[in-house]
Each structure stands twice: as structure tokens, then as C-alpha cells.
Amino acid sequence: MMHNILPDDDGGGRRIIGLSFGAFAIFFLLLSRLWYLQVVNADDLINQSENNRLRFVPVAAPRGAILDRNGKVLVSNTPSFSVAVIPQDVKDKEQLIDNLARYLNLDRNEIETKWNKGQGRAKYYPLVVASGITRDQMEFLEENRLSLSGVNIEMKPIRAYANGTLASHLLGYLGEVNEEELTSEKYQEYNAGDYIGKSGIERAWESYLHGTDGGRQIEVDARGRFLRTVAETGSSVGNTVVLTVDLNLQKAAEEAMGDMAGAVVAMDVNTGEILAFSSNPDYDPALFTGRMPPDVWKKYLEDERHPLENKALKGLYPPGSTFKIITAIAGLEEGLIDQNTTVECNGSYKFGNATFRCWEHKGHGTVNLKRSLRESCDVFYYKLAERLGVNRIAAYAKRFGLGTPMGIGLENEKGGIIPTDEWKLKRFGKKWFAGETLPVGIGQGYVLTTPIQLASMIATVANEGKIYRPQLVKRVVDADGKVLKEFSPQVAGTTGLKPETYRLVKDGLFAVVNEPRGTGGMARLWEVKVAGKTGSSQVVRDSKAGMAYKYRDHALFVAFAPYEKPEIAVAVVVEHGEHGGSAAAPVTGKVLRAYFEGKGVIKKPVPKVKPLQDGEAVAEPDGAEAAPAPVPPAPAGSDR
């Protein structure tokens, strides 16, 4: 019996030992798991538990205001309502998206795209799926709250534009931060649904304007309904940015342009401060904050006047005869001409096999420097450009900062083109031909400039040599009124020209506006002496009257005043305006008048009643009897 029992006992013992080891292993695993959960992962589990009943509701900070130089409000804030969804509280995602699309009259794909953008974030963090909803939509959502689990309505401040579309290209617009921006270091503190500056001052000064967002930690029940506020962190309003622009002068510039496309830049001659900065046509920046109506967007895109383009900063135009200022300066500095140098203009100049025509087909006759500027004789500058050569002309243009961005502080500023023989070889792989220099002398050919560059050029002529970096911001102020940054004028360079050169050129520019046959007489003021230069630049070769709008010449005018002690410089470009003297010069005159009226130098016309024979009355400007003495006009088309 003993012999039979021992083997059985040995087998049972082995089974017991095996079971013991198995039980120990299971116990060990359970113990390890408990240790991991209660020790290693305790904090995480506590957070998860808390977040089952706690929610974080972000509170957007109001952006800082944007003011003009005199403290007048250009941009402030107004409340806006957004729809946010907490994914963790959503029971049926597809049904919720369908409901929101129907209730808000939105494209379902648009809502789903915004949902998917926030997938990498915590499920209890609200995702903004619709912005700028109306009060009626907000009330409708509140009424249907039971069928919209996980939906919250948030109030966010959005931009309010006190003057509508005024200075829209300068101020810029806001837009929702996109996925690419969220991954960049610059926007690492931002969240999906936040709004950031997309252009203009709003973008360039985003870090100062944005402010610091706050938030509330709230407790909710199992259905996500609010119970109480656990903790709250207040938001901090952004800083105020004070611009150099004068609101009244900005209005005058835009009103003077009317429906014409183009740009106006007014600059303080002695500081570089930008007083007006207009691109026309404008657009409505408020539309970019919400959902842009498709028909409006289509209209913007199809408008041949390109309302979305900042022409003052990025518009590239041949400067036309305004560039004769540079050619004249180069000739004087190089000793090739003086005030007594004369050229015979018979209406054209033959160079090799090519004939270069003057705008005055019958010719100007004998022309000296002053008359060449006053009447804008092309032949004078064809001959001078031939003697100078393209490289010497370019050297003097670059002394005035042409050919490179001015550094105004806004994104994508264009630098223009000042051609040289080296430039052409590098750009086209071809050598420069002497005949190509002649159009350069009158601001045509390859030469391209921006309105901000032209304003700087004429300002530098006015102050006789200092190139100020164009300045748009005077100071940045925090919510308590403390000045965080203040900006002083910056001299970017000097031209190093002889005083006599400036005297002779400025004498010619004065004649353009104030003497008989001057091409800029329509910019003339009675109370203040104005000096300037007209220009027309070809869009196509051999442009003719009556051509389609997009093929007509551009009209330009640059000016400064007062002539004796310059304060303000203005550059105007009227796209396809054809003649600088008739299209751009009057705009300049209105801007200058507004400036000097604002300073009290010129009295604003006050209507007075003058009785008529039939007993009716008509309003007449006070001081009409003191109107400027008539100046014999230059012939049509005389602003080349």
C-alpha cells in the first residue's frame, strides 16, 4: 500500500506547489497593479477623477485698442458669441454636428473640420466650432439645450471699427488661428478658436495687442450642467497701440481718392512719421472675424481694382516722371548739367534705330533744367540718361533708399526694382543695352517703386538729405496708462548731396505747381506754397486714350509743403488715372489742404448766403474772392 501511495502523494505535492506559485504570481501582479495605480499613477488618476466633474472654461482677453496720434479710437472691442463643444460630454457626435449645422445654417463639413482640429487636446477642453453667431441663434441654441449635449455658448470680444472701412489695409484684420500657426513657437500659448492678427498693425503688433487670457474652473453634474465656480483667473486686456496717423487726414485722403484705385501716403518730412496711409478701394475688416458672406468674398476677388491688396506697401508702379527728380540730381551731382544747360526738344529723340517720343509731340523747344521739370520734358531726360548710364542713375536712386524695403514694420513690404546692368544679367541672363537706359531716365522700363518709397523720396528732397525710416507707431501703453514703448525718429541714412543740387531741383518742383504751363497746377494752394512733380507711367506700350481701364496709364504726383520750410510730404498713385496733373495732383491738393486746415494755417471755408435775383439763396465758401490767381494750364497729357 505504501508503495502505491507515494507516487500519488508526489504528484499531488507538485500540483499544490504549482497552484501556489500561480496564486503567488497572480497576487504579485495584483499587488503591482495596485502599487502602480495608487503610488506611481496616483496624481494622474486624481486629475482624471476631478475632470469628470470639473470643467475649464477659457475667458478670452479683450485686445488692446488702436488709437490715432491724437488719441481718437480707430479700433476697439465689442462682444461676440461663439459655440464651443466639450467632446467628453457629447453622446452622439454625428447627431450633434447635424443639429448644429441645421440650427446655425452652416456647412456640416466646416463644423467637422473645426472639431477635428482639436482632437489632440483634452476631451474636457471646449472646442470652438462656430464663431460670431447672432443673438437669435444663441437664443435658439439655449432653447434646444437638451438635444445639444456638450454644447456651451462663450462670449468673446471681437474688433469694433469706429470708422468702418477707414484705413482697413493699415489696421489689418483678425482671423482664427490656423493649425500651422498653432504648431509654431510664436503662437504656442494660443488655443484653437483664438483670434489673431492676420495683416497690418493687428498682425505686426499682435504680441502687444493680444492680452493674457483667463479662465474659470467650474463644477458640473453628470449631465454637464453648471453647479458652481471652483476657481477663477481673470484675463488681462491687451496694450493700447498709438499710431502716428492722423484720423482727420486719413479721412481726407480716402475721401479725395473717392472711387479711384490707388494709394496715398503722407509723411512728416522731419520725423518720418506716417500721417496718412491709404490703399483704395478698401475692404470691411469686420467681415473677416466672422463667416465671410460668399457673395462678398466673390466680389472682392473679382474686382479688377484689387481691394484686398495693400497698394501703399506692396503696389509696384513705374514712377514715371516723378523719377526725373532722381535723374536730374544725378546729372547735377556728376557735373553733366547745371541750371543753364539747355536741350533742344522737337518732340522726339532718335537713338540708334529707335525713336523715343516726348509727350509733347510738337516739342518743347529750348529747355533748361527748371523748364524740364516744370513742363516734364522727356527729351531732356532721355539725353541726360544716355550720358549718365544706367549704373550711375541707379547709384543715386539707391542713395534715396529706392530698390529696397523702407522697413516700415508691416509684413511683405516690397522693395521695388532699380535696374543695373548687373541686375539684368542676373535676372534675365542678358547684357544691358544702351537704349534701355533712356526709359529709365523718365521712370519707365524696368524701374518699379512703391507709394511709400515715393513719399520717402520726396520727403528726403524736402529736408535736403535725411532719409527717415517710415514710422507708424508712436507708443505702446498698458491698461494702467503706463508707457511701455515710445518711438523716436530713426535716420536710416543720408544722401550726401550738395545743397546747390537740392536748391535747383526744388526750384523746378516749385515751378511745376506755381508757374504757367506747370503740370501740377491742380495741387496749388493759395495760403501755402506747394512744390511737387507729376508723373504718368505706362501699363502697356503705346497706350492710347479710350483704352480699356486695365491698360490705361497710372497717374502719380509727389509733393511737399510749405516750400520755404517743409513739414509734410505726400505721394499719390491713381491706378489707370492716365494723367498725374489731372488725376493725382488734385488728390494731393486736398490732402495738403486738410493738413493745413487742421493746423489752423488755412481757414476752412464757411458757407455764407448770397442772395440771387429771383430771391433764392446759394451757399458760397467764405473767402471765395481770395481764390488763387489762375495759372495757365499745361496741355492735356502733359504729366509724363
UniProtKB/TrEMBL annotation:
<keyword id="KW-0812">Transmembrane</keyword>
<protein>
    <submittedName>
        <fullName>Penicillin-binding protein 2</fullName>
    </submittedName>
</protein>
<keyword id="KW-0378">Hydrolase</keyword>
<dbReference type="InterPro" id="IPR036138">
    <property type="entry name" value="PBP_dimer_sf"/>
</dbReference>
<dbReference type="InterPro" id="IPR017790">
    <property type="entry name" value="Penicillin-binding_protein_2"/>
</dbReference>
<feature type="transmembrane region" description="Helical">
    <location>
        <begin position="16"/>
        <end position="36"/>
    </location>
</feature>
<keyword id="KW-0133">Cell shape</keyword>
<keyword id="KW-0645">Protease</keyword>
<dbReference type="Pfam" id="PF00905">
    <property type="entry name" value="Transpeptidase"/>
</dbReference>
<dbReference type="InterPro" id="IPR001460">
    <property type="entry name" value="PCN-bd_Tpept"/>
</dbReference>
<dbReference type="InterPro" id="IPR012338">
    <property type="entry name" value="Beta-lactam/transpept-like"/>
</dbReference>
<feature type="compositionally biased region" description="Pro residues">
    <location>
        <begin position="629"/>
        <end position="640"/>
    </location>
</feature>
<dbReference type="InterPro" id="IPR005311">
    <property type="entry name" value="PBP_dimer"/>
</dbReference>
<feature type="domain" description="Penicillin-binding protein transpeptidase">
    <location>
        <begin position="262"/>
        <end position="592"/>
    </location>
</feature>
<feature type="region of interest" description="Disordered">
    <location>
        <begin position="607"/>
        <end position="640"/>
    </location>
</feature>
<keyword id="KW-0997">Cell inner membrane</keyword>
<keyword id="KW-1003">Cell membrane</keyword>
<feature type="domain" description="Penicillin-binding protein dimerisation">
    <location>
        <begin position="59"/>
        <end position="230"/>
    </location>
</feature>
<dbReference type="Pfam" id="PF03717">
    <property type="entry name" value="PBP_dimer"/>
</dbReference>
<keyword id="KW-0961">Cell wall biogenesis/degradation</keyword>
<dbReference type="InterPro" id="IPR050515">
    <property type="entry name" value="Beta-lactam/transpept"/>
</dbReference>
<keyword id="KW-1133">Transmembrane helix</keyword>
<keyword id="KW-0573">Peptidoglycan synthesis</keyword>
<keyword id="KW-0121">Carboxypeptidase</keyword>
<keyword id="KW-0472">Membrane</keyword>
